[in-house]
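User: These chains co-purify. Model them together.
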Amino acid sequence: MRPPAQNAELALLLEVAGTPKPGNVDRRRDLEELRFEHFLAGAVGARDGLEMAADGASVGAAFERAVGGMAAQGGDNTQFGALLLLVPLVRAARNELSQPVVESVVEGTTVADAAAFYRAFEHVDVFVSDPPAEMEPLDVRRGSDAVPVLEERGLTLFDVLDRSVPGDDVAREWSHGFERSFLAAQRLADASGTPSERTASVFLSLLADRPDTLVVKRHGEVTAREVTDRAAELHERDALETDPDSVKAFADELVGRGVNPGTTADVTAAGLFIALERECLEI
Amino acid sequence: MRPPAQNAELALLLEVAGTPKPGNVDRRRDLEELRFEHFLAGAVGARDGLEMAADGASVGAAFERAVGGMAAQGGDNTQFGALLLLVPLVRAARNELSQPVVESVVEGTTVADAAAFYRAFEHVDVFVSDPPAEMEPLDVRRGSDAVPVLEERGLTLFDVLDRSVPGDDVAREWSHGFERSFLAAQRLADASGTPSERTASVFLSLLADRPDTLVVKRHGEVTAREVTDRAAELHERDALETDPDSVKAFADELVGRGVNPGTTADVTAAGLFIALERECLEI
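Assistant: Joint model of the two components:
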């Protein structure tokens, strides 16, 4: 059995290898400024932070280290959201990888974890929306400058992420017991085909479930809803199996429009980690 | 600057991602029993052994650990030869990554390193030829059973590999100052295009230089020479740029015939590591 930090790194690699993943970098697709090898280097760089989580470090410290290592490549942000899911999952796997345990991990985060989370934004350019007025002093783009306000208000990392829901489906996993991550793992277990094919299938099913929140932030609700409806139509008729060309056309179109469903990829990576840990996906 | 163990793992990943690499698994190619994700998991698993080498462990111990981790996936041997090059290179990078330093690393190996090398064969099914009669008690397929004979004859790991030349171009790197690995790095630096394109170009150039010794072992000298001549013809007319379909046809044909130039891939991975360390290939 592969140790948790290795499974987490492998989950990042399997996620980006899965193809086709409409709109995103995959084994057969580079974007103009963001290429496959940036994701490979991002996964390699994240490993030390994932090892810290496996060794029992606090979620914030492990996340900050993972992001710092991930960002040491020329593609900038490749796996920030995925790491925000993987770090608490790896931490939970020290005891037991279940929804209640990972809930207790995230609910146990502290103000210091929140401060580390803010510092992580200094390593990398993450796409975020403007916060509501009362949260403006806690705009993540302030990085460590926001730490005194965090401390003054006594906000833990769980509190910070809880305030980002709705609108951010990575944060939503934190406050909803990682339900979609565990669902993704179950779907990966139930799917057939190679790991790459299963990953593509589960990515499409997740995209069909809910509008991708990164797409909402960048392109608005209407576009995000349209993308989800198209994904649902393809998923319902099992197009990856029966009509792969239509999925490929959808993928080409999203790339052409600059629409990349990054949140869905993050949840897919979390699901891959859980499936690897449970050995219902074997490599 | 990425630390050496990370660069070594990334070199393994970039090697398998480079496409097209005629006859081998690559970003766009799976073989029937050996898939891309086996190489991803192999690289992830090798990391701990590579970290040991970076921390100053002996070459044999680090190699045995790297191979044990690499082999923990369903594709069996993915990167044995590449690790036999990367481990001494990572060890050399502690001081200086140059040909004289890596020569002194391999010449300084001991009988204990040789014993660890033999034990490494117990983790994985490596394709090897029958040894000459006087080396029969030291057939690597004996694994640790051969250790008493090694000790009796006082053979170091350098001695063991030196006796495998000619016939094994990974072993040849050990006794020839890693000349092709450093040459590959220089070619990677001089090449143009994305890392994946450079990797494909350098792989083809190395295949054009010398018959691949894994192909010799599996298919004989005539086939290996023919493959090299074909690669040379494609390389000379810059077919990757000017006539990519002909390279693709060559790749399809080799896969159809079960010809995979694995030694050339091993040297490519070593070159990638050196190029990453020297920052003449940036990701």
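The radius of gyration of chain B is 18 Å.
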